[in-house]
Design brief:
Distance between the termini: 52 Å
Radius of gyration: 21 Å
Strand order of the largest sheet: 1-4-5-8
Structural class: alpha+beta
Largest sheet: 4 strands, mixed
Shape: globular
Number of helices: 10
Strand content: 5-15%
Amino acid sequence: MTDRAPQPVDRQLPTEESRDLLALVREIAQREIRPRAAEEEDSGRFPREVFTLLSEAGLLGLPYPGEYGGGEQPYEVYLQVLEELAAARLTVGLGVSVHSLACHGLGGYGTKEQQAAHLPAMLGGGLLGAYCLSEPAAGSDAASLTTKAVRDGDDWIITGTKAWITHGGVADFYTVLARTGVEGPKGITAFLVPGDAAGLTAAVPEKKMGMKGSPTAQLHFDGVRVPDSRRIGEEGQGFSIALAALDAGRLGIAACAIGVAQAALDEALAYALDRKQFGHPIADFQGLRFMLADMATKIEAGRALYLAAARLRDAGKPFSRQAAMAKLFCTDAAMAVTTDAVQVLGGYGYTADFPVERLMREAKVLQIVEGTNQIQRMVIARHLAGPETR
């Protein structure tokens, strides 16, 4: 790792409060997250104490109402917080995004009674959430999920397996999508399931290319009993709730991707200014200068794209197409920028002594989660040309 500290991003923030908030996030990231990121990722250690700290600081509920312990921050601000956290360690930035996604169903579709009963602990009470949509045979085609919830008096009995669950086995609550009716998207309902529910178990976490500190595991529901009071929304409304959550979640992934890319550029630039060859810093050579310029341009373009989509969301306007565009562009940009950062560092970039190889491995998963980038292209094309006629 280079000795040069990264320069703060020049952000256009809407209020003095939001500027103070970003300063607090940068301080926490530099003091509590970044110094241990490489070691803990290498060992596969999940930093639960960091999420507890973020909860105590009010950073796990930023886009939610203040009456339930949320921060009442616009998405424009919340996403820039995610970017800062992801730049320090993707396990943390993505973890906060997943937690916010897990709160989305109850926050947007729960009854007032449900929100009052659960949201304060979820948003600021030290709890950590996870989101359960995907299954072993239902990834991109999430509407084909087979996990079932069967009515039993005032309860529901959930049986099935969920896959690729971030925070699987360590979360305190899960937003679970299960089939309660007909095949297809209209037969799916959402539930809020406690992490310690009887019959709920987690498999051994997946062995992943990157983000080794973030547990990703299958969850097995073996007759998990959930009261109807934990059903979110109406029966059969679950898939529309899931799609709305994914639109917001894709913006979170986009912001995290730009954070990873920014971290890679910071490392590459610092190295290029320090490293000398042929009697000059390698940053003097035009070929490398052009690489750095292209990396910075991709980052600025991605940041502008996700913020434009966030402002649409904050204004109450449709933003699904823009969210898909932001997720697509920002994650592709992160993959390109981190790859170029490894190239800038040469042989050193390929070693674990410098963080760019880890950032490159982590960037790859962002092109896959919350809908692969191929799915994002399908979403964008449908907005442009309408549904496929085949």
